[in-house]
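User: Thiamine-monophosphate kinase, Prochlorococcus marinus:
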Amino acid sequence: MPESSGSSETLLEIGEREILNRLKKYMDDGQIDNDTALIKNCKKDLIINTDLMVEKVHFSSRTMTPEDIGWKAITSNFSDLASSGLDKVLSVTIGLIAPPSTSWSWVNRLYKGMTNALEVYGGKLIGGDISKGNEKVISITAIGSQGPLDLHRSHAIPGDCLVTSGPHGLSRLGLALLLEDKVLETKHVSDELKAIAIESHQHPSAPIKALKSLINCKPTKIPWRAAGTDSSDGLLEAIKSICISSNCKAIIRTNNLPTHKDWPKGNHWDKWCLNGGEDYELVISLPLEWANEWIKIMPLSKIIGDVKQGSPEILWENGKEIDSKNYLDFEHFQNK
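Assistant: Predicted structure for Thiamine-monophosphate kinase:
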């Protein structure tokens, strides 16, 4: 996807000082005049997350515009905050590495995408850094305040249900569609599913609304206890992380995988659902009564399994172990 018309100046031609000067328009006056950013005490616990997006690993100009990349860089971080029990997004800092030949237009459009996400989800851009490198790398540090529900991965207990906030595999399908993957030639994919999948890959949503609904529907007699993470690295990886932190095992309901209503059948499609990655949905372990209330107000959410006592592992309900290596599709540093 080529860049739209705009400044043809490169970062090498502009220089670091002028780049930073131009980026000031995305921040409050005087925000980056110092080497540090002031965060006024909000009298609440803070949650902080840093995420990287690397060119040719997380994004490509072949499948995403600079605005898409900027949007996704922000929402992927906010997904992590939501999966920890976010109350409110406060601020973000941005680190950018780019080749000197990168056009100013690309950088400007990247920041526009980030600003668009901040306008939707809240938070202010308060600073960052920029340097040169061989590939584009975006590092976002996001800061938020902690809400009443501490969704730590270690809070799952036997008897809980495992619930996801929405369907999985959509981002992976979107990538395949954008790359015209030949595997799609043998399967009919509805126009509705195609559109949703591409949107999920290029313009994902952070699950903040899902978190708010989870908090608001908690039954009065149920304590503020639930475990959670997001599925940015794949559904199985999310479940595995909860099992390891909570020292328990998960039983997955074979016929209740969280897929779109038009999702095709088959092992390949199950693989994309289970470990396609970058779905940015909440994966929560919580009491059944609370889970049922959440499903009532979140129609796309689904109970996908149960937490049982035992060593950390993931099993199908027939007792067969789910080896995540057989479903591996998205993992950093995996052998291709």
